[in-house]
Amino acid sequence: MSTPWQQGTPWRASVLGSQLAELLRRPGRLVTTGLSVLVAAFVVFATIMAQQITTNTAVDNYRGTPKAVDMVAKAGDSNIGATALRRIRALPGVAEAVGRVNSGAPVTGPSEHWLELRSDPGTGPLSQVELVEGSYPDRAGELAVNRRAAEELGLAPGTRTALKVPDPKNPEDGEKTVEVTVTVTGVVESTATADQQPGGYTTDAFIAPFADLPGYDHIDIEAKSAVSQAELTGQVRAALDGAGKASAKAKLVTGGAVRAAEERAAVSGDLRELFQLISVFLAVAVGAAALVATSAFRIVFAQRLRQLALLRAIGAPQPRVAAALAAEGALVGAVAGTIGVLLALGAGQLAPTAARIIAGQRLSAPGLPVTDAALVVVGTMLVSVGAVLAPALSAARVSPLQALRSAGTVAGERRIGGGRLTAGVVLAAAATGLAVLLLRNLPEPGEQDYDRGLGMLGTAVSAGLAFLALVVLGPLLVRPVLAVTGWPLRRLGTTGRLAVSGVGGTPRRAAAVSVVVALGVALVSGALVAVACLTGYTQRTDAVDAPADFRVTSEAKGLDPAVVRRFAALPELTHVTGYRTVQVTAGPKDAHIQYEVSDLDPGALPTGRYIDTATGSLSDLGPGSAVLASSVADALGVRVGDSFTVTSSGRGNIRLTVAATLPEDGPGQADILVVPADLTRMGAAESAGGIFADAATSGLAARGKAQRALETVIREHVPDPDDVTISVLADDRDNNRATIETMGVTALGLVALTVLIAVVGVTATTSLTAIERAREFGLLRALGLGGGALRRTITMEAGLYGVLGASLGLVLGVPYAWLLVRVAVSSAPLVLPGTQLALVFCALAALTALAGLLPARRATRVTPMTVLGGAE
Question: Measuring CA to CA, which residue among 387, 626, 411 is closest to residue 502?
Fold first, then answer.
């Protein structure tokens, strides 16, 4: 007798229909299996929305052209003259025209304060500034400044200062300058630039005395409403042609949309690399979601083995059963992808309003990328189908005899096949071999010939192979790791022992979930270690290049000790440290090299604690000894304990012993450090060559006050103030720190996506396990286990997934992060952020435990009658 599947086409959809009916009958399973891919779809589409918001905001807030501009006249070989601007303004088709100048000038004084100078009308549709305090300039000799200039330079409304500007009598000679006194009238915020530098603004009528060249870089033009683009072009071209040869060479960009498109392309180009980097992390997060979905489908199909066996018993072929299960996965992906996209779309549309209400920030609205949304949904379906294939093929091979058994599921396999074991060993061996090869060929500090790009690629490949080995060999690692990490739980009594045995009893399932957690922890711990190492490297570099907020130097005459004491007495300053320098020669007679020797005491500055030695110790520095930069020690062929001779002009040869060597230069780029008595022996003058000093408090305003206090002392107590230079070292140091902090926050934010998906995976697995083990829980209740104890048991099991994953992730992430940093920056120290890593470990255990609370509550509803009734 033939089966229905052998009789004709009408029965071909029966398997698919039965599976879809089962899925719709249990919608909770659909939600659970699709939760991880839903999160992945949300994250991917939210990133697309974030890119649109970022790009639109950058174009709107930092655009070079106001929205009202209908045409831009761009200068050719020479700037456009003032005559051309007057002619354009007088045209019948022009509503308004603004001449733009981008220039700059130093503020007078011993220090170098650079003020960016811009022309802007201050009001109207073509203005790119907003007044926040005072008034906008309306006469010659006035400037409005941005917040950075107001805080850092102390240029509040009403103050007067002087700028060094090109001599108007010799405009082509850039070295000849004159001082122009200006009055600050107000403080503005610019919508055209990020205002990262101190800036000043005035109208195009009064910008000429400050500009390095006469005329304007370009002219923004707004047309009257009834004037066509062609008519406007003809009028403006005629005005430019009649204003002289320089203006006649100006190029017209017709249409503000064209100009805006150019600016959008430029901004998008700047942001493209950032979002390309983000896409790498998104790919990792999607891969993690696929692993979680695979585990969830495997559990769901295991719960339906009797149903699948019945289908096989009445003649359903394996391919058709597998195809039906794959179609189920596609449906889950379509539903989850659609929901994820809709949630991300709503979040993106609400983001500008939320940013304005919560943070007071202006964000531009995103568009409606329908094509991208469709691609994300299709991609989610493909990921779901890929995730369901292996469980579907495995479930389709169920024996028809399984329908006769009482159990609705099968116990998880505790062993892995020989082929899988071999593949895992090969992957682990390849990862280890590549890592050993990289370790043996690590570059020395300062080595230039090392191919760092190839080394970083090799590190990434080795880490990828190691993770794949973890995926393959995970079931074998669960029990050994659990034996260690689960020991504290066993001490808690029955609930702890049940939790450990529950996780260890299904090693494949535990490995599938823990591997995703391990991936997230590996990325997070790797980012923390990398940021810590780079922070240590930056601190060490800053201790050499920028050991204090300010450096005051006098190359010719030096700083009198009385002046140094006045600096030290200033309440605006702290850690004022004077130093002297001399030039000496050392080395073979036929190859004497000149070196700078300093008596600066590194311990006198707070940054001195970041100075590490390559060999020896800074505490060994004393009379008759010296600390050398490594390059100097190599050139002289000496090491710690060796003696060498330096020759000082007029003082002859002086013998010194090497106390320590530094990885790079000494503070202030000194080649050799000695004690003051030895520097005096080398002929150093009594006056200091310079000082290092910090502002008494943090912040731009405090730094500006300290700088002005230094300038006052120099102006009043130094005979030749022009011989003294104030260098603000804090700006570069702050920029370096800000770069590292931004990089760290960005990296942690991106890798946190994987952690989120891992926690979702724990929730899904624990929920499905609670359904699968309903009879087991009922038996435990029948044996006297209370609801609270059962709830604690399941919560502990969920937490154990986090503990297993965190343990494996730390073992994987920390070494590879250090190797990557060591390859990229050979001088970076190994810094282990122990407290942060411990917090990550504890946080993952807590998060995964919390993820088990909801399934635990559901499990406590199981009654002892479940065992007798045979219900799931």
Answer: 411
